Every structure is written in C-alpha cells, then in structure tokens.
Amino acid sequence: MDIKKLVRNKILKLIPYKSARKIGGTGDVWLNANESPYNNFFFLKNNYFNRYPEPQSYLILKRYVNYLNNSKISSKNLLISRGSDEAIDLLIRAFCDPNKDKIMFFPPTYGMYHISSKIIGIKSIIITTFKNGNLNFKEIKKNIDYVKLIFLCRPNNPTGKILSKKNVLHLLKCINKRSLLIVDEAYIEFIFDKNLLKYLYLYPNLIILRTMSKAFSLAGLRCGFIIANSFIIKILLKIIAPYPLSSPVIDIVSQALLKKNIVFMRNKVLIINSNRIWLINFLKKFFFVKKIFNSSANYLLVCFYYSNFIFKYLWDNGIILRNQNKNYFLKNCIRISIGTKLECLKLIMKLKNLSYNLKIRYCCVK
Q: Where does the pLDDT of residue 365 fall: very low under 50, low under 70, confident under 90, or very high at 90 and above?
C-alpha cells in the first residue's frame, strides 16, 4: 500500500518550520531560541493525575486578569492555549475558509504564521516591510480583499523593532473592520508600557496574543493566551481541544502568576534589558559587525561581515545562535538571544579571539 498517496498534496510539499531545537547544536551557551536564561523553581502542589484537568483553568484566568491590571478585561476576554502557536492555528481554523480566505503578514517576521496557513490550506498575502521596519500601507490597502486575518508581531521577531502605536492604529483604520488584526505580543514584557490592551474595547477586531514562554521563563510548559472580545473567545472555545493544558502545567502557571513570582519576572526583565545594552556596547567594537538593529526584546539582530563563517565558528565553539541569512532583508544577519551576563561574556570573549585571529591572518596575507 502506498500511504504517500493518502497524504494531502500540500503536506507532502510542505517545508516545515525549523525550531531552534530541530536545528540542534551542542554547547553550553544557548542563545538561539529567545528563551529566558533565568529559571524560577516551582514544585507541584497537586500530584493526582487520574482526573482530566479543567478545560480552562479558573485560577489561571483569574490571576492573569489581575496581572493584566486592566479594569475592562475579564476572564470572558481570555482563552488559554498551548503557547502562541496553538493560538495562531485556532484563529486561522476558526475564521478562514480554505481556497477562499487569506491571511496577511509582514516579513521578516515569525515563521509560524505562514506555516500554519499552509497546513490548513489558506493563502498568505506577504507584504514585506520597508528596510526600516515600517509597514507598506499602500500595498496593504491594495491587497486587503478576502484577507480575514492580519498577523503583526510586536516587538517583531527577529528584528526586535516595535511598531509605533500610531502605525498600529493606522493599520486598524486601513482594514476598516474588514479583517481581524492579531498583534503577537510575545515579547511585550520587555517593553511593557507599549502594550495595546487599552485599545481592545475601541477596536472589536483587535486580538492580542501573549505567552508564558519568554519573560516568565516557562518555555518548556507551553502556555499562552488569546485576549479578545468575548464573542471571539466563545468562537475559539468551540474548536479548542477539550483539555489543552495538562494538570502540571496548570499547577505551575498558576504559581507563576502569584505576585511574588511576577516581581521575580520583572526583576529578571530588568536584568535582561541591562544585559542587552551591555552586549550592544561590546559588539559595536568589532570590525566585522556591520549593523546592530534597535531591539525592544530579549534578543538582538546583528548584521556581520563574514556572517556564515562567524556563525559556524561560534557554533563549533559551543555558542549556539540563530542564523537569519535566508530571511527577507536579513542577508548576513544573526539573531542573538540575550543570556546571563556570563553567557554574554563568553560570546564576547569568543568574538575577541576571532577578531584577533582574523586580524593576524589579514596582516600575514598583506
């Protein structure tokens, strides 16, 4: 039996998303997945696993509402998902008809918007940003027909740029309630005063995605949130898996949202932001660093001379980064997650060794 014939043709041809773990690497300095380098230690309070968990944990919803600190947002405006990736998939399945509707996004950006749409069979309208990271509103207006969902990563991954609120509001006016605007705020804790929560009730077609993976140091648990008007949440509840989060995940996430652990998270965000500034100042000194992009997140995008050589040199020396060379406008670019001060120092020391050796080679050749 040729099982290959039973597989959907689009899936056979699909080039899957390559996550940091799929790409692999060996070493002790992992700066490739935008994870938090700081761990917060939790212990399970509930050790009974013979019963199914709550479909949507009341305690998590309550504590996340308190964390958001917005009087207009209630648990009716929240849906808990298995990270932002499930949220993206749910939204496309709920609102888009295959072979008819479209989604839109703005590369260079997070790759799962495109992959999720291809898996489901939804056409993607790709409007590249200008080189400064701003949106091309002329092209957006021209291609808005049949677009149900627009995905905007803010701060953007992998550039770190945060689109101004003025531009986001202009985008909402451009689509004029014909589409849903989904703003992916996976990294918003690193620049929290720029969040868009207050606009949710002004724009019923605005949806915000959040995650516990980044600032909360819980990438291994897979927990995220969709924040939207109550009607959208009701629609998504129809199609989400019956038990999206396991009991241990619910247990630990509910602990992470206690006040003392939110304080822990915010303190670590301050340290990571400080480490980012420290790293920028040292990277500027290397002759093979062409450009460092402004970042409002826990990573830096850096354009190097000899980028592939530098990436492989660091890889071979146990410092694992994320090569962005094949992305739109990102030739010779490498994304560097911000680690601990020691991890950042190890990176700088390896680059110093490389810089010295390259200069020696250059002088010898000359």
A: very low
